[in-house]
Amino acid sequence: MTTVYVDVLITVNIFIDFLLILCVKKLLDVRASLLRVILGSLLGGVFSLAALLPKLPFGLNLLSDLVFAALIVLTSLGFGGLRVFLRRVAVYFGLSFAFCGLMVFVYTTFHPKGMEIYNDTVYFNISPFLLIILTLVCYYTTRLLKRLTKGVRGKSTCNIEISMGGAETSFLAAVDTGCTVKEPFSGDYVIIAEEEILRDLHLRDDTIRIIPFESLGGKGILRGYRADSVRINGKRLDSDVYLGVCENILTGEIKALAPSGLLVSNGL
């Protein structure tokens, strides 16, 4: 039985969770401050103390992993609406599961000295310097993959956070230079989004505006709602913005369009 040093256990898992959170942040284009990421990593380090508990039954172990993942995501990346939050938790949990599976394979195949796995928690008895080097290598590899993925997408993206009627949601939007849709009476910019990603908002029919469009492969109308507040990439907009709701118009992974003029006019 390998001797487990608590300080090494916590430090190792802080770095592992820091890397996992950064991966989720990059893959989902979540705008979160470095402080929040660090706090989430520290929380993950504390949760690694579960390795010191007696071996847990599979069901209880899985449930505790899900609860830990939800708390880490909530701390580091925020809530952003139920659907957004569940998606973030699912991606984080999936990455954690894949990482743990890889470590189990390495452990059972090569039996590296100083490595142990307790209650799905990985323990490496290695020097902090080597751990930092490996973490940096993994981080910059993730950044490279992100750039390659962005290149495949072909469009820049931004993170939209909208508050309306006491509810909030956030989603990823493609920045479109060809999107010139505006609310016809006020001339305010319109962010276009599929209804399926807006289920966390309370869209009241008594506040609806009809917004015509011609820039989505034809002519039609959007259901428009004035947002109480909008943040793009974490910056709150001073100007009024409308949300144009559509159904089965935007296909592909990204289900929303943000006019490039809106970002430029707000210094983004």
Overall outline: elongated
Main sheet attributes: strand count, strand direction, barrel closure: 9 strands, mixed
Subunit arrangement of the protein: single chain
The Cα radius of gyration reads: 22 Å
The proportion of residues forming helix, as a percent range, comes to: 40-55%
Structurally, how many domains make up the residues?
A: 2
How many beta-strand runs?
A: 11
Strand order of the largest sheet: 6-7-10-5-11-4-3-8-9
Unreliably modeled segments: none
Q: Which structural category do the helix and sheet elements fall into?
A: alpha+beta
First and last CA, distance: 55 Å
Q: Helix and strand succession?
A: HHHHEEHEEEEEEEEEH
Itemize the secondary structure elements and their pairings.
Layout: H1 6-27, H2 34-47, H3 58-77, H4 82-110, E1 115-118, E2 121-124, H5 128-153, E3 157-164, E4 167-176, E5 189-194, E6 209-213, E7 220-226, E8 229-232, E9 235-236, E10 241-246, E11 256-259, H6 260-265
Parallel strand pairs: 4-11, 5-10
Antiparallel strand pairs: 1-2, 3-4, 3-8, 5-11, 6-7, 7-10, 8-9
Helix pairs in contact: 1-2, 1-4, 1-5, 2-3, 3-4
